[in-house]
Amino acid sequence: MQPLTALTIAGSDSGGGAGVQADIRTFNSFKIHATSAITAVTAQNTLGVQCVQALSADFVEAQVRSVTADFTVAACKTGMLATATTVERIAALARDGLLPHLVVDPVLVSTSGDLLMADGGVAAYRDALFAYAEVITPNVHEAAVLCGVAVGDVRTVDDLTNLAKSLWSLGPTYVVVKGGHLTRAHSAQISSDVIVGRDQCVVLESPRVATFNDHGTGCTLSAAIASGLALGFGPLDAVREAKSFVHRALKGARTWQLGAGRGPVDHLGWEV
Fold first, then answer.
1. Is the pTM of this model over 0.90?
2. Which of 73, 177, 198, 271 has the greatest count of CB atoms below 10 A from its CB?
3. Burial class (CB in 10 A: 0-12, 13-18, 19+), 241
4. In the prediction, which pLDDT does 111 show?
5. pLDDT score of 188
6. What region does 52 belong to: left with phi over 0, alpha with psi -120 to 50, or beta?
């Protein structure tokens, strides 16, 4: 067996549920060798983020160049980039062809509500990075912020679709707006994600899993999409497989008791 290699460019989660740690476990579950460029170090647990130390854009770039100079990277994903300068630097690396099959998870705020992006990050994503992404994966809150829409005005799948179409106009090949945070009516029992590409609009639905262990689901989804792209799946099939993977991971961890807050998902299929 000769494994493929994928690269995550993201922050470290000291609690192990999200960020680089979640990405590595996800890549490994797809039998892909994981490499990484760490953008920030967090003091973090299941209850929230207590402290963030961003690394310099120069050092992030040095990590990416070190990995790509030695490994044949089949796909890449970004998570927490922390600063606008780092977002712009990653865009430049993508423009230079170093980041194939790039999946961008525009991490702005953690699940617990902690700010994970410095001023200027929203504009940097919109103006610099999205144009080089094969897939972007904002959640409802991130998509609303990126589109300048009040989060409270996003209530339906049609609203998600409108956000996805607005973001697609910024240049990514595909946009996935994750509907996991919708809580009204139909969405109370069903998790709906909207995928928009050229002449395509697809809604993927799955039953919600009753669990508090959902920390890192966004990181996991984007890493799973990158894994699918590395394995040769088309974007739509990669997203479908990734959504199924996250659903299985949520079900596997639904009764775990790791920490006092929102725990991690079952990336490695321990409960299957």
1. yes
2. 177
3. middle
4. 63
5. 63
6. beta
CB 64 within 8 A of CB 98: yes
Token representation of residue 82: 């922390």
Low-confidence ranges of the chain (pLDDT < 50): 185-186
Residue with tokens 């890192």, as numbered in its chain = 216
Q: Which ranges in 57-188 belong to alpha helices (H)?
A: 57-70, 84-95, 121-124, 140-147, 157-168
pLDDT at 139: 92
Structure-token pair, residue 65:
């160049």
Is there a contact between 76 and 102 (Cβ–Cβ < 8 Å)? yes
- Whole-number pLDDT of residue 186: 46
| Exposure string over 114-149, b if 16+ CB within 10 A, otherwise e | eebbbeebbebbbebbbebbbbbbbbbbbbbbbbee
Inter-CA distances, 272 with 118, 243, 245, 269, Å: 39, 17, 12, 5
Tokens 């050092």, residue?
A: 59
Is it true that domain 5-252 has CATH number 3.40.1190.20?
Answer: yes
123: its two tokens: 């504009």
Identify the pLDDT of residue 5.
Answer: 98
| Tokens read off for 110 | 């953690």
Closest listed residue to residue 176, CA positions, set 77, 29, 39: 77
Q: How does strand 33-45 pair with strand 48-54?
A: antiparallel
User: Do the beta carbons of residue 9 and residue 28 sit within 8 Å?
Assistant: no
